[in-house]
Design brief:
Order of helices and strands: HEHEHEHEHEEE
Shape: globular
Radius of gyration: 15 Å
Helix content: 25-40%
CATH class: Alpha Beta
Structural class: alpha/beta
Number of strands: 7
CATH superfamily: Vaccinia Virus protein VP39
Strand order of the largest sheet: 3-2-1-4-5-7-6
CATH architecture: 3-Layer(aba) Sandwich
Distance between the termini: 37 Å
Length: 179
């Protein structure tokens, strides 16, 4: 996996074998960050990366100037890898935590400018992520929530849904506060 842009652009992240992940492809990740760049500036942003896996999105956000990136995953080895990668790349603002996504959201009381969630495509609770985030009110007023999912999942009917973008088998559903 390659860091696309920013201070660490061009560097590679090599996760160990056996992590229970499906990393976002370079094509989809490039499209995601191009789309994000047209909507917000990550410089100084507070970011929450749910179901972070290898930390691919977390590290990219930090490379592009995010001030603080909180990464969450239910798997200890993913959390360990993200923290060790951040340390080896000398990134101070990235910290990963082992937790259930919904339990973590319930404990939060601060705002995030960008929230990204990339749960396994086959879980039944993908739609509940946006509900939990808006119920807990942790997305900043002008913040963006993006949920990555497969083509069989449809989130368009959910509250605060803005649009869906598809890149092959990868889909991004975008949510914002309605003004």
């Amino acid at each position: 996996m390659r860091i696309i842009s920013g201070t660490l652009g061009g560097r590679f992240i090599n996760p160990p074998q056996g992590l229970p992940v499906r990393p976002t492809t370079d094509l989809a990740k490039t499209a995601l960050f191009n789309m994000l760049a047209s909507r917000m500036d990550l410089m100084g942003a507070q970011v929450l990366d749910l179901c972070c896996g290898t930390g691919n999105i977390s590290i990219e956000c930090a490379s592009r100037g995010a001030e603080k990136v909180t990464a969450v995953d239910a798997h200890f080895n993913c959390v360990k890898f993200v923290n060790s990668t951040a340390q080896s790349l000398n990134i101070k603002g990235v910290q990963a935590f082992k937790s259930d996504v919904f339990k973590f959201i319930e404990t939060q009381n601060s705002f995030y400018d960008f929230i990204f969630a990339d749960p396994p495509y086959d879980v039944s609770w993908i739609a509940q992520i946006s509900e939990a985030i808006f119920k807990q009110n942790i997305l900043a007023p002008k913040g963006i929530l993006i949920i990555e999912h497969g083509s069989k999942t449809q989130l368009a009917g959910l509250k605060n849904f803005v649009e869906q973008r598809s890149y092959g088998n990868v889909n991004f559903s975008i949510f914002r506060h309605h003004e």
